[in-house]
Amino acid sequence: MKVVDSFPRTVREIENTWITMPDGCRLAARIWLPEDAEEHPVPAILECMPYRKRDFTRLRDEPLHHYLAGHGYASIRLDLRGSGDSDGLILDEYLQQEQDDCLAVLDWITSQPWCSGPVGMFGISWGGFNALQVAAHQPECLKAIITMCSTDDRYADDAHYMGGCLLNENLNWGSVFFATAAFPPDPALYGDDWREQWRYRLENQVLYPAVWMGHQQRDDYWKHGSVCENFDDIQCAVYAVGGWADGYPNAIPRMMEGLSAPRKALIGPWSHAFPHNALPGPAIGFFQEMLRWWDYWLKDIDNGIMDEPPMRVWMEEHVPPAPLYEYRPGRWVAEPSWPSERIQNETLYLNVLSMGRRAEPEDRMRITSPETTGLAGGDWYGFGGEGEMAIDQREDDGKSLVFDGDTVSERIEILGAPVAELEVTVDRPVAYVIVRLNDVAPDGASTRVTWGVLNLTQRESREHPAPLEAGKRYRVRVQMKDVAYAFAPGHTMRLAVSTSYWPMIWPAPEPVRLTLHTGVSSLHLPVRPPREEDEQLRPFEPPERGPQSEPEALSSGDFRRTVERNLINNETTYRIYNEGGDFGGASLAYIEDIDLTAGYSLGKWFRTHEYDASGAEARIDQNCVLQRDDWSARVECVTRLTADPQHFRLRATLHAYDGDALFFEREWDEWIPRHLI
User: Which residues form the Xaa-Pro dipeptidyl-peptidase C-terminal domain (predicted)?
Assistant: First the structure.
């Protein structure tokens, strides 16, 4: 990747600035801006996150914000209240306080002598969420946003629930957030009161996964911050960006349909990362694409970006299943409007062990999937690391009802969300159904194309679930994740249906026997006809970035991902261990610019019995350290989730060390009632 170190404007960096909120709370910001901005003011761009600008995201922030500043923008990276070097507490995601703070920061920015008035917001993941949420408040100065890997619906499409089922990502992400929030501000910036602020945080520490598990249906808690509740609240321009390998692709087509403001969408093959260095490739010159967006909306430069098709996506080709893809073959395609009138629905009927355009006489097939179904599913979202992708699906296919179509004779491209309409009967009041659309190669290898899950108690309403009646027949709709994919001649489409998907989702309270009625169940595919104009799409520039600090690796990181089966007690344990953290793959790294040594390690364990999920367990272990000269802060935390049919049980321990001395410790043991989940 090209590293740019010469820019149109010389860049001045302000390592830390305090921005005082109306209630007196100080928020910490790192700022890059043209050296002469006070004499020649520039538009500003704001990014707000809780991930510690001083250390944990330092190496990510520098090349981007420096690049923007070098091209004539004031670029601000803010630590949210209660995180990093900011005062206060961070009590949850996306609280009203966070939105109010962001609005106050926008007011502060526009009052600075280096700001010419127009402001943009951007962010990936958390920063993408709050860019949307702040835009819904319609601050006058906010002209445009770029939201990456985020969602408009916090219940339907976030890391907590999917299809009304509890994701294990709720524990995983919540545990990482739990550890991040437990760290102190840096004494070099915060001053002598850093211990008081640290203890204040620790004494008010929130076990975030428990909060989210207390809201198991789509109630007012999730509606807050879900901009889909009223898309018309957003009036500024929106550029929505994401990747098919990420957990958030569904939100982008939905926002393109729901928003009335100027909007544009870009979906690549990428994981949860910036498109200039994301895997799978191809990476693109995304920093240049951001500049085109900001130049148009903040500098009134008519560069043609809004004359291009609003919906641009990477049409993926088949690849053999693998735990990591460096590159996904395919091509860029675009639609002149969304929803596209060009997309055609094609219906395939699920018959006994087959799938075709004609429905055969009605029959029945039954399944009680082993609780280990899903071990080939990969991660809910990945960051471009080893083992994140879904591998060969044949093992999971063998634990599912499988419906194979005829061999594809002519290339078929789909763009959108495939939907399975199923008629089912179950024998338990709570049951899940998982559907996977796979591409079976001539050699039999099965590649997952897309997938979806549904808690059948939410078949009619996410807000008001209803228990199932044993033996009663239900017709349900299972929408899979949006995707762009080309099935090649000689391949076979396969729909696989199961009742469990571990460790992606937490199991139903009891094993379920599901009867699927064939001949009346079907698969609906969004088939995309060819479009000649795709060949004339403006090519993206090669990736480039600004300069950044290079950490010194003090010890190499270890990464392992294994599945262990105990053939004596029929238990399977899925383990992930990662020491890489955010420091270039090192388990311990030295950042010379701030004379700081930082380290991080993460261990995950997911254990279940082949046929009995009552002993299922998920556990997350984390160890984090920051040290400089005679200062050292270390945090160790463990979170553990188990369940019985009536309750979830979430336990956690937190130990914080000031040097070698124990500074704080606490334990949690929470019993959370299960509500039809």
Answer: 291-546
